[in-house]
Amino acid sequence: MVMKMEKKYIFLDVDGTLYSSQIAGVPASARKAIDLARANGSKVFLCTGRSLAECSKYLNDPLDGFVFGAGAMVYAEHKRIYDRPLDPEDVLAIEHFLEENGFGWSLEGQAGAYVNEEAYEFLLPYFSAGKQPRSVMVQQMMDNGMYPAGYMDPQEKIYKICGFTTKIIDDMEPIRAKVDPKYSLLVTLKSESGTGCELNYKEITKATGIRRVLDFYGADWNDACAIGDSENDIPMIEACGTGIAMGNAFEHVKEKADFVTTDILDDGIWNAFRHIGVI
Q1: DSSP-derived pairing of the beta strands 113-115 and 104-109
Q2: Helix, strand or coil, per DSSP, at residue 217
Q3: Which of 6, 2, 9, 42 is nearest to 223 (CA)?
Q4: Per-residue pLDDT tens for 56-104?
Q5: What's the CA gap between 60 and 178, in Å, rounded?
Q6: What element of type H or E holds 134?
Q7: What is the structure's pLDDT at 146?
Q8: How far apart are the C-alpha atoms of 4 and 58, rounded to whole Å?
């Protein structure tokens, strides 16, 4: 007897959901789950805070589209259907805000992500599964579209800005309270290495990016499933018909989810796909 599979529009976060810094890659079970789900009629999209340049390694993967910059740039069926970079004056304002509050920064553009010295040193081991020879870590940064800030063309469009600090910040609210109301500040990384966050316009979220994809296909929120692990995933987890948190997700993200799957390296994507009936 052949089981009838559900057909869903599935939106996957990248860092902490699809990509593991512990292995500097994607678990084999996650890739297999994506292939099977698409073979069974579902459509699978990356819905990430990363820019297009930072996802170059995934552009030729068997996927149906992308939401980049946490909603700032959207592709469906190889067509760009939405594009909203930050205004240049806002790039400078956010950059200065992060510096004043002790963060290094990464300006995430279309051609690359441009990282100041503090953030560059923070990110080097992230893309190399820990400490490696510096030449290896630098190459891994370039392979993920990340370059020292001096390489940025002044005319480069920036879609989102990330901040990184080696400080472990348990309570981000005092810093968040100082942010201009037109921006949102979301925590994207907490580890023994420090804290990461991202800033963009408040009206741009992963949920608004997904809405544009669903409109492109004439689909409904009930047809959509979102899987993520950090604060920028909460809007899509709450908006989609099924919202799933990874086992390694922040606790307050798990509280928003309809289902909590296993950790990323414990077949988290595979088990999530099994839960929603697409494989």
Answers
A1: antiparallel
A2: helix
A3: 9
A4: 999 989 999 999 999 999 999 999 999 999 999 999 999 999 999 999 9
A5: 40
A6: helix 134-143
A7: 96
A8: 29
